[in-house]
Amino acid sequence: MTTLDDLDLMDAATTPTGVGSSRKCRRHRWEWTTWMDDSRVVTMMEWCAYCRKRKDPIASRRGRTNRSRGNAVEREIGHRLGLRRVGQYGGPDDLSGEMFAAQVKSGGAFPERLWGWLRAVPVTAGQTALLVVANAPGSGVKRRAVVVLSVEDWIALHGPTEKEDPR
Questions:
Q1: pTM of this structure
Q2: Could you tell me if 46 and 32 are in contact, meaning their C-beta atoms sit under 8 angstroms apart?
Q3: d(Cα 142, Cα 138) in Å, to the nearest integer?
Protein backbone atom coordinates (compact mmCIF):
# COMPACT_ATOMS: atom_id res chain seq x y z
CA MET A 1 0.00 0.00 0.00
CA THR A 2 1.25 3.49 -0.79
CA THR A 3 1.95 5.72 2.21
CA LEU A 4 1.18 9.40 2.27
CA ASP A 5 4.92 10.18 2.19
CA ASP A 6 5.30 8.18 -1.04
CA LEU A 7 2.68 10.38 -2.69
CA ASP A 8 4.92 13.44 -2.32
CA LEU A 9 7.51 11.74 -4.48
CA MET A 10 5.13 11.03 -7.34
CA ASP A 11 5.16 13.57 -10.12
CA ALA A 12 2.32 15.88 -11.07
CA ALA A 13 1.53 13.79 -14.15
CA THR A 14 0.07 11.07 -11.94
CA THR A 15 -2.04 13.45 -9.85
CA PRO A 16 -5.53 12.07 -9.16
CA THR A 17 -8.21 13.14 -11.58
CA GLY A 18 -10.48 15.96 -10.55
CA VAL A 19 -7.75 17.85 -8.69
CA GLY A 20 -7.38 21.55 -9.47
CA SER A 21 -4.47 23.92 -9.95
CA SER A 22 -1.28 24.12 -7.89
CA ARG A 23 -1.91 27.62 -6.46
CA LYS A 24 -2.34 28.10 -2.71
CA CYS A 25 -5.90 28.25 -1.41
CA ARG A 26 -7.46 30.82 0.82
CA ARG A 27 -10.03 28.23 1.92
CA HIS A 28 -9.74 24.57 1.00
CA ARG A 29 -12.54 22.57 -0.59
CA TRP A 30 -12.00 18.99 0.51
CA GLU A 31 -12.97 16.10 -1.76
CA TRP A 32 -12.38 12.38 -1.57
CA THR A 33 -10.07 11.13 -4.33
CA THR A 34 -9.14 7.65 -5.45
CA TRP A 35 -5.44 7.12 -6.01
CA MET A 36 -3.95 4.18 -7.89
CA ASP A 37 -0.19 3.74 -7.86
CA ASP A 38 1.96 1.70 -10.31
CA SER A 39 1.34 -1.57 -8.44
CA ARG A 40 -2.45 -1.13 -8.80
CA VAL A 41 -3.02 -0.41 -5.11
CA VAL A 42 -6.02 1.88 -4.66
CA THR A 43 -5.96 4.43 -1.85
CA MET A 44 -8.75 6.81 -0.79
CA MET A 45 -7.72 10.18 0.64
CA GLU A 46 -9.01 13.71 1.01
CA TRP A 47 -7.48 16.37 -1.22
CA CYS A 48 -8.24 20.02 -1.74
CA ALA A 49 -9.90 20.43 -5.12
CA TYR A 50 -8.05 23.71 -5.68
CA CYS A 51 -4.47 23.36 -4.46
CA ARG A 52 -3.98 19.55 -4.24
CA LYS A 53 -3.05 19.64 -0.57
CA ARG A 54 -3.77 16.47 1.41
CA LYS A 55 -6.02 16.91 4.46
CA ASP A 56 -4.19 16.37 7.74
CA PRO A 57 -6.70 14.84 10.22
CA ILE A 58 -4.59 15.75 13.26
CA ALA A 59 -4.36 19.43 12.31
CA SER A 60 -8.07 19.43 11.46
CA ARG A 61 -8.98 18.05 14.90
CA ARG A 62 -6.66 20.54 16.63
CA GLY A 63 -8.31 23.43 14.79
CA ARG A 64 -11.81 22.32 15.77
CA THR A 65 -10.77 21.85 19.40
CA ASN A 66 -9.16 25.29 19.61
CA ARG A 67 -12.17 26.95 18.03
CA SER A 68 -14.52 25.21 20.46
CA ARG A 69 -12.37 26.29 23.41
CA GLY A 70 -12.30 29.90 22.20
CA ASN A 71 -16.08 29.92 21.74
CA ALA A 72 -16.57 28.54 25.27
CA VAL A 73 -14.34 31.27 26.75
CA GLU A 74 -16.25 33.89 24.77
CA ARG A 75 -19.61 32.59 26.08
CA GLU A 76 -18.37 32.51 29.69
CA ILE A 77 -16.92 36.03 29.61
CA GLY A 78 -20.05 37.36 27.92
CA HIS A 79 -22.22 35.78 30.60
CA ARG A 80 -20.06 37.13 33.44
CA LEU A 81 -20.01 40.66 32.01
CA GLY A 82 -23.67 40.70 31.06
CA LEU A 83 -22.91 41.24 27.37
CA ARG A 84 -24.61 39.60 24.39
CA ARG A 85 -22.46 37.34 22.24
CA VAL A 86 -22.27 38.53 18.61
CA GLY A 87 -18.88 37.12 17.56
CA GLN A 88 -20.30 34.15 15.68
CA TYR A 89 -21.39 36.52 12.90
CA GLY A 90 -17.83 37.42 11.89
CA GLY A 91 -17.61 41.05 13.01
CA PRO A 92 -14.69 42.61 14.85
CA ASP A 93 -16.61 42.58 18.16
CA ASP A 94 -17.33 39.36 20.03
CA LEU A 95 -19.56 40.74 22.79
CA SER A 96 -21.89 43.71 22.79
CA GLY A 97 -24.12 45.49 25.25
CA GLU A 98 -25.84 48.82 25.69
CA MET A 99 -22.67 50.65 26.72
CA PHE A 100 -19.81 48.35 25.68
CA ALA A 101 -18.52 46.24 22.81
CA ALA A 102 -15.68 43.79 23.46
CA GLN A 103 -13.20 41.59 21.64
CA VAL A 104 -12.26 38.38 23.54
CA LYS A 105 -8.87 36.72 23.07
CA SER A 106 -7.77 33.52 24.79
CA GLY A 107 -4.92 31.04 24.63
CA GLY A 108 -1.39 32.14 23.85
CA ALA A 109 -2.32 35.82 23.80
CA PHE A 110 -2.69 36.14 27.61
CA PRO A 111 -0.15 38.77 28.79
CA GLU A 112 1.46 37.33 31.94
CA ARG A 113 3.65 40.42 32.20
CA LEU A 114 0.63 42.77 32.35
CA TRP A 115 -1.16 40.44 34.77
CA GLY A 116 1.85 40.55 37.11
CA TRP A 117 1.96 44.34 36.98
CA LEU A 118 -1.80 44.57 37.64
CA ARG A 119 -1.61 42.23 40.64
CA ALA A 120 1.33 44.25 42.05
CA VAL A 121 -0.70 47.49 42.32
CA PRO A 122 -1.32 48.15 46.04
CA VAL A 123 -4.96 48.94 46.79
CA THR A 124 -6.86 49.82 49.94
CA ALA A 125 -10.51 49.14 50.76
CA GLY A 126 -12.79 50.66 48.15
CA GLN A 127 -10.07 51.03 45.50
CA THR A 128 -9.79 49.12 42.23
CA ALA A 129 -6.44 48.21 40.75
CA LEU A 130 -5.94 49.62 37.25
CA LEU A 131 -2.97 49.23 34.96
CA VAL A 132 -2.44 51.89 32.31
CA VAL A 133 -0.08 50.93 29.49
CA ALA A 134 1.02 53.80 27.24
CA ASN A 135 3.56 54.32 24.51
CA ALA A 136 5.93 57.23 23.94
CA PRO A 137 6.19 57.46 20.14
CA GLY A 138 8.07 60.76 19.95
CA SER A 139 7.31 64.27 18.84
CA GLY A 140 4.48 64.83 16.42
CA VAL A 141 2.80 61.48 17.10
CA LYS A 142 -0.17 61.19 19.41
CA ARG A 143 0.38 59.03 22.48
CA ARG A 144 -1.80 55.94 22.95
CA ALA A 145 -2.84 54.26 26.20
CA VAL A 146 -4.99 51.34 27.34
CA VAL A 147 -6.48 50.60 30.75
CA VAL A 148 -6.35 47.05 32.09
CA LEU A 149 -8.38 45.65 34.99
CA SER A 150 -9.42 42.13 35.95
CA VAL A 151 -12.83 40.68 35.10
CA GLU A 152 -13.57 40.27 38.82
CA ASP A 153 -12.93 43.98 39.42
CA TRP A 154 -15.07 44.85 36.40
CA ILE A 155 -17.97 42.81 37.81
CA ALA A 156 -17.49 44.44 41.23
CA LEU A 157 -17.77 47.89 39.61
CA HIS A 158 -20.66 47.20 37.23
CA GLY A 159 -22.54 44.51 39.16
CA PRO A 160 -23.08 40.85 38.34
CA THR A 161 -25.54 39.63 35.74
CA GLU A 162 -28.89 38.16 36.80
CA LYS A 163 -27.58 34.62 36.38
CA GLU A 164 -24.10 35.14 37.86
CA ASP A 165 -22.64 31.99 39.42
CA PRO A 166 -21.43 32.52 43.01
CA ARG A 167 -17.93 31.10 42.31
A1: 0.63
A2: yes
A3: 8
